[in-house]
Amino acid sequence: MATEIDLVADLRESICRHAKYSLGKRWPDLSPHDQFVAVALAVRDRMVDGMLATERRYRESDPKRLFYLSIEFLIGQSLENNLRNLGLRESCRQALAQLGANLEEIEDREPDAALGNGGLGRLAACFLDSLATLGMPGYGYGINYEYGLFKQEIDNGYQREKPENWLAQSSPWQIARPDEACLVPVYGRIEHAVDRHGAYNPMWMDWKVLIGVPCDMLVPGYGGRTVHFLRLYSAHSSHDFDMRIFNDGDYFKAVEQKITSETVSKVLYPSDAVIAGHELRLEQEYFLVACALRDIVRRFEQRHADFHEFPAKTAIQLNDTHPALAVAELMRILVDEKSLPWTDAWEITQATFAYTNHTLAAEALEKWPTPLLELMLPRHLQIIHEINVRFLRQLAAATPTDGARLARMSLVEESSPKQVRMVNLAIVGSHSVNGVSALHTRWFETVLVPDFYQLWPGKFSNKTNGITQRRWMLKANPRLADLITATVGDGWITDLTRLRGLERVADDPGFQSAFAGIKRANKEKLAAIIREGSYVKVDPDSLFSIQAKRIHAYKRQLLNVLHIVHEYLALIEDGQTPAVPRTYILAGKAAPGYWLAKQIIKLIHNVARVINRDPRAANWIRVAFIPDYRVSLAEKIIPAADLSEQISTAGTEASGTSNMKLALNGAVAIGTLDGANVEILEEVGPDNMFIFGLQATEVRAMREQRSYRPREFYERDPRVKRVVDAFGAGLFCTDEPGLFSWVFQKLLDSADEHLHLADLAAYLEAQQQAARAFTDRSRWLRMAILNIARVGKFSSDRTVAEYARDIWHLQSL
Amino acid sequence: MEIAADKMNDVAVVQIPVDELDASNAGELKRDIAPVLEANTRLVIDLSRLRFIDSSGLGAMLSCLRQLSAKNGDLKLCGMSRQVRATFELVRMHRIFDIFPTCEEAVRAFDGAQASPAD
Q: Which A residues, 297 through 336, put their C-beta within 8 Å of a C-beta on chain B?
């Protein structure tokens, strides 16, 4: 057993060795980034040992394995998380101190791996942490985007996007596996031939080739016993250059061919909604699927010859429909390459796949035009048509003829042009389908795909999302983590329900005081970040009201702004001081092509400028927008929150996970009954959350009956009228008249599908209640502590354990 | 591309003399193998040097098969690496060619000595 001293010496030696032999420098000569690389490589060595040991352990029992296919993995920084999970952080700190360096400074230098937009990608990253911690054989498969989600800069209140070349200096975490590269054909045509025995044999001809080169990022579970990998693929051309073209003197054409191939993994699409019609996006989705399936099949064949055993050894989870082409790809492999009969292949495919839906809006469900599919993936389109013909035939035989129902359930929408419905493909091709919160699952079953739910009710289930407490408490809020451990022991790190033990100290003045001190320190840190990044001075004693997430109409940052404006106008026009001084903190990126979201960012900045410059508001209201929201920034914002703004229109947020992260860190939520807010309310209780607004069924009814009359809310409530009029009058754009007239128009438009004015009065009341509660320090602290104590359900360990039990049939080893 | 045909039991045997058969040299192969196809009806193509083949290379193989079939001849393939075999399978071309591990087995198959190919 290595002693602490051995570990420190060993790490120090390892860091210096990498400085010398991996970077070719002496430790004292390393740049700050080089220091990070040397430390990361030393840590990676230990993870490689762990990964090999894990694989040895798994091989003994030849377990079923899960492969999690996701177009996004929003990882963030890894060094601190890896050190904590491996139990090496203190040793590393000492080793670096002996070398005259500071661990925290080195950890801070790590660029975020921003291979995702938001919730869906971060969920995938949390799941990998939980799988490794639970010792369940599960691996991620994704794309190694050269450019992650763009870097957000603010120029005169407007978002400007800058490329985020996170791999510019290469990532020390990635282990290249060129020997496991695979060939991916795309485009081409089908040649309808017959085989040696006279049977129909469609051949895929004239394709262009991409090479998928994998590299692995290792994922250590807490305690370091299990280390898995996330396999990310880069697209390469089949040669460095086409030497023939090069030799003919057309250098640029040779380079162009190479670049065209490599474009596939060049950049993450910056939207969490569907990106319809983008050929490159379809190519990305297929590239991921083809590389992943090739690798998964290769691994299976290392130990098995009979593909009928495939589902007993392999579970594949489709994280939304982006990898749904995997259904057609596995069928192609089994039928075309492995020569299995169609019916056998279909049984194997259905038993292998499971699909998670993340969408609530019918119009956001992914579809691809058949002409594009025929152009890019002609064999897959043939297979999809064959699946569809057999499915519809079976359906028609089993149920009374109902043409409309058949048309709704068909994999192909009879539009012009025809489109393949990826959600239908994913449902038909999977043995399990799940939503990500109880409300979303009900909605998915009864509103989005009711025909499928009626046909296969047993296929559907709910798996409410979760977050990993290792990142969102242990790493993000280490002082609070220490306090919790001192109070209830460290069992919560792997069993979040242990936080229930905090209920008994929720009223304890000593615990409350310790908690308040930590919260104050976190707020001071955030205040410094705001001062530096947004040039706004904020008071850490004020109520920090935080809304940090993608900027999107349905998330209703605009509603938040309406409340801020209301408070401001009440102060300056009515002399009505707020119950408490407040700092409104917003952060988030807008998709570059999303005009409204970008306008909301500009609006927030203009409102902030007017209020922050008004001396009458100086002691009461501050507004700050923190640029470039990303995982590492979220880890600093969330622990500082008092009030968590979860105010989406009911029935629009599938789950949300920032609501869970904020509750875990002792923020009290003000929110609608949307997504996982509903279940958080069930856990923490109505006394510890400020719930307001329409419910999902009411919103739906209002939309269907077209009964939303914003003018009535406007006329009826003078507070509402005054806020709306402020935008009509141009209060926040005196130097650019008319800049925000869209706000005035949108709010009074009965077509405002997010029903801002229907919820505004209730929101103002709820905000009043929150402010009053904050003035009662002991009550507020009790609420915050009970949020922490009762949020145990929302660990991704619980979510993953449910998937493993109900869907993947995976064991801990 | 230098294509030389050897005779084994009245069967022409040709080795593809490159590591990679793709858009840059598939046309050259088709041109240079044409005299062999003219002069023979029973042909074995040895792919043992080949490490990579793309759709142009597969197209060239298919063209050879069709030319021989048109005059009631036949083509058999041998010596495929795992990667090259995988590419044939990927596009279902392993179902239209007789594929054998070695040249000798491919040649024998013309005489019916080995009935079933290696798939």
A: 336
